[in-house]
Structure formats: C-alpha cells, structure tokens
Amino acid sequence: MGKRQLDGLVIAVTGGAAGIGRQIAEQAAWAGARVAIGDRNAEAAAATASELGAGMRSYPLDVTDEASFTTFLDDVERDLGPLDVLVNNAGVMWVGPFDAESETATEAMFAVNVLGVIRGIRLAAPRMRERGGGHVVTIASAASKLAPPGEASYAASKHAVLGYLTGVREELRGSGVHISAILPGVVDTALAAGTDTGAAKLLSPDDVAAAVLRVISAPRFITTIPSYVGPLVAVSGLLPQGIRDVLLRRAVPDQVAAAAKADRSGYEKDALG
After folding, report:
1. Phi and psi dihedrals of 171, rounded to 5?
2. What is the model's pTM?
3. What would the 3-class secondary structure string for 60-124 be?
4. Cβ neighbours around 37 below 10 Å, total
5. CB neighbours of 55 closer than 8 A, spacing ≥ 6?
6. Which residues contact 147 (CB under 8 A, 6 or more apart)?
7. Comparing C-alpha atoms, which of 192, 239, 215, 228 is closest to residue 88?
8. What does the pLDDT look like over 211-235, one tens digit per residue?
C-alpha cells in the first residue's frame, strides 16, 4: 500500500490528555487530521483539547468499561465522521519486585493494557471493516518482546497485546483494515518516571508520535523504537540461552534496582488505584 495523507482523516486517541497520547494528537492535528482524544480524566482531556486547538475534540473515556468505550466511538463518529484511525495508547505500569506487586496493580495493568486494547479493537475494527477500510494503531512496548526485571506483569501484558494483535491481523487480512503495533523503549513520561533505559537512549513522546504518524501514512505491522531493538531480539533468539542471557543483561535495564531509588508512589496511586 502506498503512502496516504493524514489531511481530513478522523483519528481517535485513547489516553490522549498527556504524555505520548497528547503528542500523537498534536502531531496528527498539525498534519490536518480531525482528532478526538479520550481520557478517564475528562477535565485534563478538555484542557488539552482547548490548548491544542485546531478543532480538536475531547471525550471522557474509561477503556476498562465497555459502555464508556462504545459511547466514545459513537460520539466521535457523530461529531467528526466515520473513524479512520483508532490509536490504542492508554496504558499503566507498576515497577518493582514481582513479590511486592499488589493484586490491585496486577489487575489494573491487565484491565487497561490488555483488555482495554482488545475492547477498542473489538468495537472499532468491525465498523471499519464494514466500510472497507481503517487502521488500528496500538502503542505496545519493547516489553512486548523483552521482559525487564521489575516489569514482569507489565511485560506479560504487552506480550499478550502483541499476541492478540498478531491473531486479529490475520483475521482482518484482505478487509482493508490495518493493524499496527508500536514498540518503544523507555519514554520520558510519568508512566516511566524513575526507570532505567538500559543500553538505549531515553525517548521523547515526540519520537513515538512521529512513528505513529509514519505508520498511519504507510501501514506496517511492527515498528520498534529504536529500530535496532527488533534485530537485537531476533538475533538473540538464535543464540544459546547462556549467551542470550549475557547479551540481554547488558542491554535490558534492571528495573528492580531502578525502582528502589525512585519514588513512583504519586503516579502509581493515580494510575493503579
């Protein structure tokens, strides 16, 4: 498929009030798209939409609630027109030793990171298929392919997301509906505050947003940021376990150690309950 312009596309972004979602919304609006942001913090979403301007719309959205997600999609299509692109961006993360993680934190990560994505695709993709085209872009993580210590459940949630996307992509083959996954490393947002980047550089939300716009323009299934993460994982998978362990321990950060030095209590109280 050749490149397409974003001008006039209707794009909805979950978790769009701040961080990566905000930057995706802003860059998409600059490119001429009609953008809707949904966020469980409706006031923050409204403030972001007002600040970014360009006719951007905001809506309350709880991705863990079926009725909320359905209403979000209905309202976006009523106000802006048929949805061309859904960006599943909403996500949460707890960091620390596996045996210190609360049941509440574990359930929140799977409710938002996995079931929220599944819900968005299950509700949006059939509408797109009926119209003969559309695109769902999901912000996953390099943790979809790696599993840093200290992020065991988070990595499990992202592995689950990539598995789901892989299966759904095949079901939608030939329908005109594209499925894409963006797999960034550590991004400078509240979600990743206090964590270590390992051998990779710290990414900015703009880096991820730019990758999303490129993928919307020219659809592809998996995009890793930095780009070398994909080949690194592929090559490491061919190595004997002992050598693979040494390689990945040098490249992948130890988030148990990082979390011990950071105070993430404010973010985690707000995001995970």
Report:
1. -65, -30
2. 0.94
3. ECCCCCHHHHHHHHHHHHHHHCCCCEEEECCCCCCCCCHHHCCHHHHHHHHHHHHHHHHHHHHHH
4. 34
5. 29, 34
6. 155, 156, 159
7. 215
8. 999 999 999 999 999 998 888 889 9
Using CA atoms, how far residue 195 sits from 191, 232, 253, 260, in Å, is 9, 21, 8, 10
Active site residues per annotation: 154
Q: Which domains does the chain have, with CATH numbers?
A: 10-272 (3.40.50.720)
What single letter denotes the amino acid at residue 202?
L
Sheet hosting strand 177-184, strand order edge to edge: 57-60, 34-39, 10-14, 85-88, 134-139, 177-184, 222-225
Buried-exposed string 186-200: b where 16+ CB fall within 10 A, e elsewhere: bbbbebbeebbebeb
**C-alpha span between 161 and 173 (Å, rounded):** 18
Residues comprising the chain, all counted: 273
